[in-house]
Amino acid sequence: MNKTEFSKQRPLLSLNSRLARRFWSDKIDQEHLHTLKELTERFRFSIAMGELLLLDGRWYVTHAGLLSLAQRSRCASIRVQQVREFCDPTVGRWVFRATVYKSPRSKGFVGYGDADPSNVSSLVRGAEMRVAETRAVNRALRKAYGIGLCSVEELGSFRPSLESAPGSQKGLASAGESVPGNGQPRLRDRLCQLIRQHNLDPTLVKRYAADFCETEHLRNATRERVEAFINQLAEQAAKDRAGLLCQLNSYAAPQEAKS
Fold first, then answer.
1. pLDDT at 213
2. Measured between alpha carbons, how far is 119 from 91 in angstroms, rounded to an integer?
């Protein structure tokens, strides 16, 4: 990297380092920061854009990060095909083959992605076909651009700490389960993504959400109120995570008092 290119990377590297320390203050060390520096300089991934996540002590790239890299690198095309002989819609099993063409004359980089109820999170059950397609594209892109990091979407399930938290699945998922699909990400998926991205306590977020929506049970809240809460949570997490954590901790006090 020459001096001009390095100078262009400095603002992004500074922002990534600052956000990493803010979001994962109690989990990040110098080794993580060194790896982050390499990823920033080589691939220009952005934490602010949700392109990198630190989960259980390891960096993971996201689908959004891989697509952004492909766009910056002027990827010629991505072709995705269903591998029909391995698919069984009756049991929710899907397999896709993705081919990434970095240039019009490229022979292509191939990646396969599979998904079924046994290897996806309970939060995305019923969307195995989309998960399989995303995994295939991610693997092909990682091969094409030499990325050794695993992508978040390739994980067999979300973080154990997220799924095993008391009431996290029922409380957070119910906010969007009763709303028909309209082509937009489900509210529960957006909310869980925010929790993962900013390393928030799902139980406290649930209590905060119920209070915000002025309802005892989050499942009784209207879609409009839940959506408003998610937008506010995203803004708070991006602008003042420390203040958000203090606010979330205030919802732990009544529970602690009972114990």
1. 86
2. 13
